[in-house]
Specification:
Helix content: 55-70%
Strand content: under 5%
Radius of gyration: 20 Å
Number of helices: 12
Oligomer: single chain
Order of helices and strands: HHHHHHHHHHHH
Shape: globular
């Protein structure tokens, strides 16, 4: 009887169907609240000037409204309130940012290009997953996974693009030099291994193969990246206007979003955490 009293709560905890999306939702809320609050408290007028430059009327007032919505909407997301309208509005907001600004800057937000649309694309996918979470009671059985499926594909595309670029573009030595400066032997070889995990692992996760071990390894990669590189540059990776807070480095919010998305993806596929292609299963 005592054993049952202690094991039942743990079973309930680990069977919670929305635990992964809860982590993702809190990460999204932290990101949007931080951006909105910074603009409101600092009086940063760059977003208003940018909107005005597009020919939109009341650019400054519109920028203030967007910042206020990010704070209030982020708090509602954190509290799991009004997920459908808030998630939908955030999805439209960041999709508009891609169309109006980021698509002209290329894909990469850091690395081969700067201020590209990958970060906003992952925000859109996360907001879509949050919106679909709020619609779970109204979606047909075959469509309940749509939000998380879109998030998984967009996440894997972002991870694959970075790994493939370093692997085939000859830029692995940059991260290899960083590891060497930290005292690691074989820095270049380690980074090549990381690139292989990002490329091959992203393709596998997209196919829902070996999701748990691969997401765990990638989470470790990005957590180490935060500690060793991104942390001392602050939180922000993009911002209105010049879209960079520091001239020589980038903050850790994108790595945080990657980690939150990986946690949600891993939890969503917890029923088949070590799934392999059927041919490999038959061979085993």
């Amino acid at each position: 009887m005592v054993r049952l009293a202690y094991t039942a709560p743990m079973k309930t905890l680990y069977a919670h169907p929305t635990a992964g999306t809860d982590v993702l939702r809190l990460v999204l809320a932290a990101i949007v609240i931080t951006h909105g609050a910074e603009r409101l408290l600092s009086g940063n007028a760059v977003l208003g000037q940018f909107l005005g430059g597009l020919g939109l009327p009341f650019g400054a007032a519109l920028a203030q409204f967007i910042s206020l919505f990010e704070v209030v909407g982020g708090l509602l997301l954190a509290a799991r309130r009004l997920l459908v309208p808030v998630g939908g509005l955030f999805f439209c907001l960041y999709l508009a940012s891609i169309v109006l600004f980021h698509r002209h800057k290329g894909f990469y937000v850091i690395g081969p290009s700067e201020n590209g649309w990958e970060f906003s694309a992952l925000l859109c996918a996360g907001m879509l997953a949050t919106l679909c979470e709020g619609l779970q009671g109204r979606l047909a059985t075959g469509r309940k996974r749509v939000g998380m499926d879109v998030l998984r594909i967009v996440l894997c595309a972002c991870i694959f693009m970075h790994g493939a670029h370093r692997l085939f573009g000859g830029h692995s030595h940059v991260l290899g030099d960083i590891l060497a400066s930290k005292g690691f032997p074989f820095g270049l070889q380690i980074i090549i291994l990381v690139n292989l995990v990002e490329t091959i692992g992203a393709l596998a996760i997209a196919r829902r193969l070996m999701v748990f071990p691969l997401t765990l390894v990638l989470i470790c990669f990005y957590a180490v990246g935060i500690v060793w590189f991104h942390w001392h540059w602050g939180f922000f990776i993009v911002a209105p206007g010049d879209f960079k807070w520091e001239p020589d480095g980038w903050g850790w919010e994108y790595s945080l979003l990657l980690i939150g998305s990986l946690v949600a993806t891993s939890w969503e596929n917890r029923a088949v955490p070590f799934a392999l292609p059927s041919r490999l299963l038959r061979a085993a």
